[in-house]
């Protein structure tokens, strides 16, 4: 969604940006743009955009551009500044829309939450929050500009998750299919990958989005680091860390992306690749050989019943392991009956299992239960919650979380587009030059 502002041959930067919004003539309160400006007391010449009942001023825009420049280490070329300006304005408008929507649902982000996030950001640069604020003020940046940005970054995901998490269903087949692809490809290379996401809001303008992505690649050819471009222009959640996806195993990404990184030499960047309603730009920073298969490890739900219960009662109790919630660690919801104890054993290798029980466990697969074993005055049984086959594959929970985040991210983008269509967004600025300093 953010890349509807990229300039193309067909239209200028700000002209494209203005056309990206489905504007309404009045705000939800029934006010026109001019009435909103008059009520705000801001001179018309200082208004960059009107967003429902709020204005974005040229001062706000100037502050955001300075913030983007300082966060990039001043590595943005001069000829990229118009693109940076358009992106800064887009970000400010989206923040207003997000904060207005969260206000509708009575969501409040406290100053303490904002300061906590500010402290985390400062720590990434080996600074305290006060030192970061001093650095910003020394560069002529009001910390309020950053706080506004942080507030939207905290509030929006909370709102989206609160409203839509029940709509996201990660199918077990999706997890199985992902694991199967990764298992089949475990003998192949792994890739250290970074990403830039360019959501395609309007499929009829896909070529314009593609050209916008190519402009970013051109900036990288001129020396702008991939991480800097990702921080400023990517719509992925990884933008905050420069687009870093970390080490990715073959088969872990969507097929069209997986195919591209396999063919790419280390140190190279793909052209924009259409994938799931967006264009993706991937950088392969490094490659390494496949993982050598090691020793399998298990996450086991273990239960034991005292022999005094008797054979029949002990077996009946232990059979409940597979339907209890030991694997989820929800102890308060587990009831195997009196005289039965249980525990969750994570990342257990075969050599850590009592040799008397080892042969009953080693051939079990996920969601399989051992027979009931009688030893040391008790009955014992284990259920396999998860199994790492020694290939270093991520857990099912990790894969589920990744799929869940991707699905929720798509919902978030659609939600924001819907808000835009129902809002009055009037871009007033035509030509704005960022002053020196």
Automatic annotation (TrEMBL):
It comes from the Bacteria. GO terms for molecular function: peptidyl-prolyl cis-trans isomerase activity. Residues 1-22 form the signal peptide. InterPro entries: OMP_Chaperone_SurA, PPIase_dom_sf, PPIase_PpiC, PPIase_PpiC_CS, SurA_N, Trigger_fact/SurA_dom_sf. This is Parvulin-like PPIase. Residues 188-286 form the PpiC domain. SUPFAM superfamilies: FKBP-like (SSF54534), Triger factor/SurA peptide-binding domain-like (SSF109998). The keyword Transferase does not apply. It comes from Hyphococcus luteus. Keywords: Chaperone, Isomerase, Periplasm, Rotamase, Signal.
């Amino acid at each position: 969604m953010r890349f509807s502002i990229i300039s193309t041959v067909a239209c200028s930067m700000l002209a494209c940006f203005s056309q990206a919004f489905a504007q309404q003539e009045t705000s939800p309160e029934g006010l026109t743009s001019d009435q909103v400006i008059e009520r705000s007391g801001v001179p018309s010449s200082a208004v960059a955009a009107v967003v429902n009942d709020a204005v974005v001023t040229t001062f706000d825009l100037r502050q955001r551009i300075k913030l983007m420049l300082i966060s990039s280490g001043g590595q943005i070329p001069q000829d990229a500044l118009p693109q940076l300006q358009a992106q800064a304005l887009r970000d400010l408008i989206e923040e207003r829309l997000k904060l207005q929507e969260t206000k509708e649902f009575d969501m409040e982000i406290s100053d303490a939450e904002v300061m906590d996030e500010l402290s985390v950001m400062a720590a990434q640069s080996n600074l305290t929050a006060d030192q970061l604020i001093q650095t910003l003020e020394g560069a002529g940046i009001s910390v309020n500009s950053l706080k506004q940005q942080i507030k939207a970054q905290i509030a929006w995901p909370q709102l989206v998750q609160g409203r839509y998490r029940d709509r996201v269903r990660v199918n077990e087949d999706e997890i199985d299919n992902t694991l199967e692809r990764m298992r089949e490809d475990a003998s192949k290379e792994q890739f250290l990958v970074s990403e830039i996401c360019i959501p395609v809001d309007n499929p009829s303008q896909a070529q314009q989005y593609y050209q916008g992505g190519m402009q970013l690649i051109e900036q990288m050819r001129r020396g702008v680091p991939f991480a800097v471009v990702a921080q400023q222009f990517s719509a992925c959640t990884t933008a905050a860390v420069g687009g870093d996806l970390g080490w990715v195993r073959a088969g872990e990404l969507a097929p069209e992306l997986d195919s591209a990184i396999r063919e790419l030499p280390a140190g190279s960047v793909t052209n924009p690749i259409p994938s799931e309603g967006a264009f993706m730009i991937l950088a392969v920073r490094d490659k390494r050989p496949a993982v050598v298969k090691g020793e399998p490890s298990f996450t086991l739900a273990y239960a034991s019943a005292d022999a005094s219960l008797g054979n029949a009662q002990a077996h009946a109790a232990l059979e409940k392991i597979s339907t209890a919630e030991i694997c989820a660690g929800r102890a308060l919801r587990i009831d195997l009956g009196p005289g039965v104890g249980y525990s969750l054993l994570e990342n257990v290798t075969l050599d850590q299992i009592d040799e008397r029980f080892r042969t009953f466990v080693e051939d079990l697969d996920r969601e399989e239960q051992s027979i009931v074993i009688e030893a040391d005055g008790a009955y014992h049984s284990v259920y396999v919650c998860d199994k790492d086959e020694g290939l270093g594959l991520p857990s099912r929970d990790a894969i589920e979380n990744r799929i869940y985040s991707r699905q929720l991210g798509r919902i978030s983008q659609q939600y924001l587009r819907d808000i835009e269509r129902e809002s009055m967004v009037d871009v007033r600025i035509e030509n704005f030059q960022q002053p020196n300093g």
